[in-house]
Here is the input.
Amino acid sequence: MKILSLNLGRATPVAYTDQPEGVTGIDKQPVAGPVRVTAPGEKGVGASGLAGDAVCDLRHHGGDDQAVYAFAREDLDAWEQLLGRALPNGVFGENLTTEGVDVCGAKIGERWRIGPDLLLEVSSSRIPCKTFQGHLGEKTWVKRFTQEKRPGAYLRVIEPGEIRAGDTVEVVHRPAHEVTVAFEFRAVTTERELLPRLLAAGDALHYEVEQQIRTYTEKYDARSA
Here is the structure.
């Protein structure tokens, strides 16, 4: 298991973004590295965990729980077949294009050692947005991406470090619960009745997912009263 490609984005003007400044960093390009990876700070203030990587919409992206985004090359290959077009590393806005890693099968709270120093923890799935759809130029992309249930994973930084393309990925901790990235994605998108089962992931849950669970539970309790 390894990092096949390490990808960084720069702020680029686009016509489809809904941000006031009209820029996005979704178009990530491979770099050789090394790149320093650290916890960027809370959402709304912190951006990407990777030095030199642009995150332009701090309201919806970036921060400690979304410091790094990983997507499996194997899943990109599957999308190439579905879309009938080439998809280079970084095209989904991922910082890490992995090889041999079951990204969507990773469990919330799972920890990856990358290179000698960096330790990451899987925090949540990626939810598609209109900027992603505009970037790819695929109509109804948000719906199609959601239906496929291969969202890739956001990770938080537990121990900072430098990484580069080719570094190995070692799973050093895998929780015993059932909450994989794909399972969490289903719960927060199309199968909300699964939300309470995400609590098995405990403190490793993204705080926004915890808020969704509380809202769902409150509504369910109100209907049952």
User: Anything to note?
Assistant: The radius of gyration is 17 Å. Residues 7 and 29 are 5 Å apart (CA to CA). The chain is about 25% helix and 25% strand. Helices lie at 73-83, 130-136, 141-148, 181-189, 207-224.
